[in-house]
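User: I'll paste a sequence; please echo it back and then give the predicted structure.

Assistant: Echoing your sequence first, then the prediction.
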Amino acid sequence: MNAQQKNLVTLLAAALVAGGLGLYAYFGVMRPEQKEAQRKAAEEKVFALQTPGETGTDGGAAPEPVFTWLSVEVAQGKTVMELKDGTWRITSPISVRADKNEVSTLLSQLSVAKFKATLEENPTDADLERYGLKQPRGTMTARAYVPDAQGGGADDPSRQRSTTVYLGVENNFDGSVYVRREGDPRVYSAQGGLRFVLLKHTNEWRDRVVFPVEESSLLRIEAKARKNAFTLERATTEKPWKLVQPVEMRAAADQVKKMVSTLEGYRALGFPEPKQEEKVRQALEKPMVQATFVRKIGGPVRVRITELELDGGKQVFALSEWDSESILSQVDSLALNVLDLEPKDFKDRKALAFTIGDVARIVIHPATPTGETISIVQAPDTGKWEVASPLVGNAKQFKVASLLGSLEKLEAAALGESNPKNWGKYGIGTTGHGVTLQDAQGQELARLRLGTEVKGNPRRLWARGSSEDVLELNKSAIDALPLALTELMDGAPAAAGTP
């Protein structure tokens, strides 16, 4: 064996020794240490659903359990909650939706809550009495499954886990709570926050959303309140709202959104006691407010609200019913007013109702009889805007886009009378200063007619738009519109001014 071969053998031997040491360090030292750390972590958890040293399919830490069933028993009674089709529901003593925020907070505690200290290894009855664990203040049982590598295992018996924890009294010194676990004789202390999360009766676990409606999902709203009744509808959720009863007119999108959002924002203040429920339901047979919300997906949501004398005072209750769900609850008295709206409350302050993409021709009418009308058309082959009169040439594309965008957003600062007999008193006629928008077939989409200055307010102009209401427009908004040929046409002569 030559020197080079001897060196190679020496290197291989060293590598084998190093590898052996590494394997020993991992399997002989590190791996046991990891297992011990995992075991201690499992033992420290209040809700230990994994056995000490349990690992995942890859040999690492076991995945976090997925909770599927919860039982909370306090002095007022026992509440059972189950995860069904991705939604937590109370299944006993009643069948209703659970408050997702409350359940989420509870699940967070189940995952992270740890013991602070071990107080008694083998407590006597006297010890248990002193810690409030002889007759626990609360009992919590949780069921879960440990998911496999694909996230499944919900129906695999070998992956099912269960644990029960008992809560005692509070430690007045540091606010912690005394705890005991089923199958474990020891008494522990845990963070006091656990007590606030767990010790709740059934009504505190209930979902408090009274009116489950979202404007974006609605197609029709029918409402009858104490003074007013109305019907709103739209063809699709992408289309604008229209008031169809008691009068027909465009409805302001912002107002409809505000109304629905305000109603949806009310939460249950409480729930009627069983002995009161019959009286409340009888009162709701003749509600002060009733409404039906037709949704794009799912059945309609029917709402009834009324006020009645109960326990020596007036209280307001609401009943919402949809699909197979319902909720009967006490709500703030202001909920009676949310749907009590007049037609004028839905009036749209937008001056013009049109879709920018439908516009193929813009006609700007002059402010004076001697002025020239400006006509701008969209070329059908290129889609570019061109000036057709009084001169012919290329239009400034960004200026035309700015004009259309500003007209689409233009809103009245105030609304005047509706459908006046004489528009002339506002300086508005069938001709005169303004803008007309047409489609490719020459049909009028919208027209803005500008009138005289508002008396007593020189900063505003009278105007007529797509509705029959007299509009007050801010003069500054009109002055900002690019209406001059020099602003709209490439290479327009300087003499061409404002129409």
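The chain has ten helices and 26 strands. The chain has a mean pLDDT of 88.
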